[in-house]
Amino acid sequence: MAKRGGTIINISGLTPVDDPSYRYKMPAVFGKIEGKGNGIKTVIPNITDVAASLHRSPGEVTKYFGCELGAQTTYNEDKDRAIVNGAHKDLVLQQLIHKYIDSFVLCPNCGLPETDYKIKNGLINHRCAACGAKEMVDMSHKLTNYIIAHKPKKPAGGKGKDTKEEKKSKKKDKGGSDDDKKKKDKKKKDKKDKKKKDKKEASSSSGNHLEDAVFGEKKDKSIGDSDAESVGSEPGVDDAGAMILAIEGIQAFLKENPKAKHTEIAEVVVNQQMASALKTHDKVQIFLRAVITPNFYKEKQIETNAPTIREITKKNPVMERHLIGAIESMWSDNPKNFTVMLKQLFDEEALDEDVILEWAFDGRSEYTTIDEDARSSLRAEAEPVINWLQEESDSDSDSD
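User: That's the sequence. What structure does it adopt?
Assistant: Structure tokens below.
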């Protein structure tokens, strides 16, 4: 398989695999240094063999070297020639291959190199043929831009895994009418994909500020500017830019998929949170800010989106505390809206009674991102709701 000495090693990430009977093998990568001075470069003669053993493209593997070494790379498919600018030793190249395998080849769940990519909504997931897991790759790595830009075009109705010879054989086995139908289906799919891509690009180029991302065109003129700013502010989030992109990503998805199921929306929210390198609990912030406007109580936005909120929090008490923290930050200057939303979330079973009472009597905690004065105002406004919940709780206890 390899072209220099035929050195074959186990496919492994950052943790070595010493088992001699391990069935996943690859050629050891090696380089050939050419030129000198500013024109010095490293050619990788066996890049195609290395890439084929990992079920990845030679161009992708070559690009990874460039991303990690900060060097310009080129891969010429016609000449099967991979070049990385600069002089790089074999040991360095092989260490980088192990790092690449760890991040972009091995299944995060079972650890086997049985994955391919599933790219959807600008996010890349490992799809493992061995265990069936679907896990997101590190979307913060520069290589992901290359992978998305060079996403292979799959024939309609196929899984894109057949070799050229197999595809030709299938075409011969099937009648001409089937081929014609495939061509028509492919044209329809390409046209549809192009339309979606154009919409997405138009959305991402809009450059809206966070306030626009939260409100869209539904800003309630009856509410003052200070109220609008309270929803648009991002207390507790280190990277406001990442939050903006995540919010806009959800809004774009909902616009393109108005009939999406709640489970599907929740999955996209999680993907956006991970892709933006935000904290796990920030997914409730992302979703609320994407779908809630100051007019939420008139437009029944809580009632509409409660199933998705429940899917995101999984009725986990910790996540529900973060949910309250999210609405605290949204309505820190509007206690009335906070109280209305708190009650509606309880009515729609998105917040548990015990969680709300815990928030009420805990005082300021790690879940709270606003100052004590603002929290006290919210707590005072919510007093009737808290008293009512206490009475209901006491009544339940007496009946037991």
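The longest strand covers residues 115-120.
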